Amino acid sequence: MIELKTNLPGKKSLFGDARNILLEHDIQMGGNWDFDRGNFDTILNQDGSDTIYLRIPFHVVDGELDEDSAMIEFDVPFIINHVVNIGLDDDDSPVLASVGLDQFQTPEDKDGPIVYDEKWVHEGEARIAKFSDHPIFIAPLV
User: Fold this and answer.
1) Chain Cα centroid distance, residue 82
2) In 15-77, which ranges are E strands?
3) Residues 6+ apart with CB under 8 A from 111
4) Residues 26-46: pLDDT tens digits?
5) Helical (H) or strand (E) element with 79
6) Which residues are CB-neighbours of 68 under 8 A, at least 6 positions away?
7) Which CATH superfamily is domain 2-84+108-129 in?
8) C-alpha 63: how far from its chain's center?
9) Domain ranges of the chain
10) Confidence of residue 7 (pLDDT cuts 50, 70, 90)
């Protein structure tokens, strides 16, 4: 994991507004969220079993995440390499696999090494710079 230096941490927005702006930049809500926190994610590179993600974490400061009106605050974005397990997953149930309910493998490494890290840092910071000054993002009071 490599943390990025951007002006996004501490900025606030309504969840629905942030989601819409980020979708315009090909950044989507990640699947692993709770009612008080979540991540926006996009793939920067995919090569074999390695996938380099730009991840933008946030937490809810008012409301609940399933509401567009929830106020969220962004945390420090980062780059992460998710290494997928391409082989068979020994922990999976053959019964679930045979009926098609076992579609996701346990990752080999959720935070693998990142090759060409400066390239991904630059690309991640550039992607965030394209939207982080949008008027819907309220800067923290200094």
Assistant:
1) 11
2) 28-29, 37-47, 50-62, 71-74
3) 1, 80, 81, 82
4) 999 988 888 899 999 999 988
5) strand 78-83
6) 14, 15, 16, 17, 19
7) YugN-like (3.30.310.100)
8) 21
9) 2-84+108-129
10) very high
